[in-house]
Amino acid sequence: MSSDPTRRPLSRTERSLLDSLLDHEFDGVAELRAQVEHATASSGCECGCGMIDLHVPAGLPVSSAAGPVPIEGTVLDASGEAIGGVLLFVEHGRLAGLEIYSDDEPLPFWASERVRVQTDSVR
User: Above 90 in pLDDT, residue 54?
Assistant: First the structure.
């Protein structure tokens, strides 16, 4: 782990969301799955939204994936209605960020059972 005091291990919820998003096949996913084992997190935004920066040590295989990966999660409320989404960002072949977004109030990180993951081949 980095000596940067703002970096911390992934929480169980963050790890679960990453695993859910990466449980689908697309170019470069194998390398991203391997990076999750070594990834750390830090706060990605000060506004209270569900955004974390991801950090992966040098020396791990890099992915051919870039930008938001072609997989997106939809956050569901208790009644099953969509209230937001989850995006995974990759920069230079490395996990870079995980964002929970909403059109309304900022959303916290949800357990993966509240997220429906879908492929998005048109980005």
Answer: yes
